[in-house]
Amino acid sequence: MRRQALLLAVLGSTLVSCVGVYGATGNDTGGIIPWSPDNEREALNIAQNNCGRFNKHAAITSVHRIYGDYIGYVCIWDPPPRRRHRT
After folding, report:
1. The pTM is what?
2. What contacts 74, CB < 8 A, 6 or more positions away?
3. DSSP 40-78
4. Rounded to 5 degrees, what are φ and ψ at 62?
5. Helical (H) or strand (E) element with 13
6. Average pLDDT per block of 10 residues along the chain, 87 residues long
7. CB 75 within 8 A of CB 56
8. What is the pLDDT of residue 56?
9. pLDDT score at 79
């Protein structure tokens, strides 16, 4: 019983840290993801998972690096243009 409780606690804390306490919120036009360092790394994947349900592509529009704030994204029909980094 203790082993199951410990496993459940670890799994629960992992899931909460991935998308926040309330999770990502979105629809076919876009949404928000609670900011955390982990969520920032996975923001495009989380957003694309939502937008992909509507056969659209995700584009990150804003990142506010403060706990309690959000990463914003939009769902668009055409893939966003690839940006070339200058060297």
Report:
1. 0.67
2. 29, 30, 58, 59, 61
3. HHHHHHHHHHHHHTTT-EEEEEEE--STT-EEEEEEESS
4. -155, 145
5. helix 2-19
6. 54 48 84 94 95 95 93 91 64
7. yes
8. 95
9. 82
Residue type, 3: R
pLDDT, residue 81, reads: 73
68 CB-side CA count, 13 A: 0
Q: Cα–Cα distance between 38 and 57 in angstroms, integer?
A: 21
Classify burial at 31, counting beta carbons within 10 Å of its beta carbon; exposed 0-12, middle 13-18, buried 19 or more: buried
Q: Which two tokens stand for residue 66?
A: 């403060």
Q: Cα separation of 14 and 56, whole Å?
A: 28
**Quick one: tokens of 54?**
């509507």
Task: Quickly tell me which residue has 């909460």 as its tokens.
Answer: 16
pLDDT of residue 73: 96
- Three-state DSSP class for 33? strand
